[in-house]
Structure formats: C-alpha cells, structure tokens
Amino acid sequence: MTLRTYKGIAPKLGAGVYIDASSVLVGDIELAADVSIWPLVAARGDVNYIRIGARTNIQDGSVLHLSRPSKGKPAGSPLIIGEDVTVGHKVMLHGCTLGNRILIGMGAIVMDDVIVEDDVIIGAGSLVPPGKRLASGYLYVGSPAKQARALTEAEFAFLKESAVNYVQLKDEYLAEV
C-alpha cells in the first residue's frame, strides 16, 4: 500500500483495515475499523480532510477528493463517508457527506456539498450535482440524479449485507498477506 504524508499529516488506519498495494492515500485521511480500499483507489486528503466510517468499502478505481477552504466557504468541502457504505467501481466522490448504509453504483459522481442521508442507493452512472440533498430511503438515478422510487425491504437489507460481504472479503485478503 502507498500511504503518503502531506504537510506532516499521514493517513490514520483503524483496526482491521485493508488497503490494496496499488492504491494511494495522501494526507489527512482517517479510516475507521474494517474499512477496505480496493485496487487503484486514489484518495487525497491534501487541501481538506477525508473521514471514512467503519465497514465501508471503496472499490476499484474510485477517486476521493475534496475542496479547499476559500473566502466564500471558510471550511471548504471535506469528504465524510459514514458506516457500512459500499462505493462501487470507478466512483468519484468530491467534497460530499455520505450517511450510513449507502450503495453508490459503478461510475457514479457525487459532487461538492452533496448530503446523502442514511439508507440510500445511487444508481450506476448517476451524477449528483453540487449542493443536492438525497433523502433517506430512496433510489436515485440519472444525470442529474433524481429520486426514482422508495427502496424495497430487500434493498434495505442488502445495504447492510453488502458491507458485511466486503468485511469478509477483506479479511480473506488480509489472511493471505
């Protein structure tokens, strides 16, 4: 794995974290317990910070970044990801806040100052434009993303199941090292 310090700040890893050797994490990044970072993920905590909650998985080729503080926005836009979140392949997350038990489909883009409440699915290829708030309990699809329908009971259950599956998978990878 490649962990890089930026301005004297290095990524901090919780217990049981798995980071693939091809991924790069730079600067002010904190990963809680049982987080998994899969191949070719790039995460830059350079001009702000990244926080990732327990049992969250960031899948292959995803990019995580943020926005720096400015005159009009003194705090900038950090990237905050809750617990039990599944971030699909090639997702781009930029300066947004994600709640718990979220699934973000492959190739989706979630922009600055978006707030995604708990228990949400964002469909593959969707674009969530800056400043949008996605309410809990719904599927969102499209570009720009729109609320499509309420989640089913099976989808609510799958949100937690997906996170558990990735914890098991990362444990298998860690056992091989």
Largest sheet: 12 strands, parallel
Low-confidence stretches: none
CATH A-level architecture: 3 Solenoid
For the secondary structure, the number of strands is: 20
**Helix share, percent:** 10-25%
Name the beta content range.
35-45%
The named CATH superfamily:
Hexapeptide repeat proteins
- The shape is globular
Helix and strand sequence: EEEEEEEEEEEEEEEEEEEEH
How many structural domains can be distinguished in the coordinates?
Answer: 1
Please sum up the structure shown.
It holds the Pfam family Hexapep. With 177 residues, this protein is mainly beta.
Highlighted features:
177 residues; mainly beta; UDP N-Acetylglucosamine Acyltransferase, domain 1; 12-stranded parallel sheet; 20 strands; 14% helix
Describe this structure in words.
There is one protein chain. With 177 residues, the protein is mainly beta. It has a single domain (2-176), classed as UDP N-Acetylglucosamine Acyltransferase, domain 1 (3 Solenoid), CATH 2.160.10.10. 14% of the residues lie in helices and 38% in strands. The protein is built from 1 helix and 20 strands. It has one helix at 153-176; strands at 2-4, 12-13, 18-19, 24-31, 36-37, 42-52, 57-58, 63-65, 79-81, 86-87, 92-94, 97-98, 102-104, 109-110, 115-116, 120-122, 127-128, 133-134, 138-142, 145-150. Strands 1, 2, 4, 6, 8, 9, 11, 12, 14, 15, 17 and 18 form a 12-stranded parallel beta sheet that branches. It has an 8-stranded mixed beta sheet with strand order 3-5-7-10-13-16-19-20. A hairpin with a 2-residue loop joins strand 19 (138-142) and strand 20 (145-150). The longest helix has 24 residues, at 153-176.
